Amino acid sequence: MEPRYPFVAVDVPEPEADEIAAALFELGASGVEQRDEQTLVRGARSGQVTLVASFEDHGEAEAAIAALGELSPPLAGRLEEVVGDAWRDAWKEHFAPFALTPTITVVPPWAPRAPEREGERVLLLEPGRAFGTGLHATTALVAELLDEHAAELRGREILDVGTGSGILALVALLLGAERAVAIDNDDDVIEVVLENAARNGLERRVEASAGVVEQVTRQFPWVVANIEARVLRPLAPELARVLAPGGWLILSGILESERDDLVARYTSL
Fold first, then answer.
1. What are 67-126's pLDDT values in tens digits?
2. At 50, phi and psi to the nearest 5?
3. Are residues 234 and 214 in the same domain?
4. Residues 143-171: b if buried by 16+ CB within 10 A, e if exposed
5. Measuring CA to CA, which residue among 46, 80, 53, 81 is closest to residue 68?
6. pTM of the full predicted structure?
7. Largest CB tally within 10 Å, which of 10, 51, 79, 82?
8. Residues of the domain holding 36
9. Which GO terms describe its cellular component (predicted)?
């Protein structure tokens, strides 16, 4: 029997999306993607986005739907599932090229195209089993910051912690980084990272492996971690350890209400 993968879809007001996404993680979601009417829309009205949260089993998904219904105001989560590997392709119908940064356009590999304007870089990306299409604001904010500081990034190495699809590591390479080391505690995503690197001719400049930051033995001038505050908080000593003196540490996936506490945690090291 083929495995079934449950997920919960819920339409939420756009200003509340990050807070509710964090709540879904607290309820056991293994990943949350944000979709809007211009990208991966499935039923969201104007001014709303659809959050799609994956769960390990149906019990967790059903419990999350019940918890969403107890919020004030209540939210109506929808339980859906895909069978076997069909879920890999279920989202492709809605995935179209989009500008991730002023210079980088994310393009699906089944509809490749050349750059259409001067200075444009095309990133062929398929998330596969990994989260990280580039549609979530936390990913876009990091990518935009890397783009803004491309001159400082050029020729340097970068460590991407919790890499997912590898999108941020690949963005850094497109912007001129010499080499990217991408790690994730999910074994399944490493193949995805390497496949995406190969699609873009970057496989010789990417080192991807399953593991945790505690296993990293050297320092990097650039370190990015787009995870969430509850994970970033205990990782502070290790992320500080792998950051070279005078280097850039970019953290994302943080709610505004969590920012000050997290900044204090990292600046105290």
1. 999 988 899 999 988 766 665 565 566 567 888 999 999 998 887 788 888 989 999 998
2. -105, 125
3. yes
4. bbebbeebeebeebbbbbbbbbbbbbbbb
5. 53
6. 0.75
7. 51
8. 4-91
9. ribosome
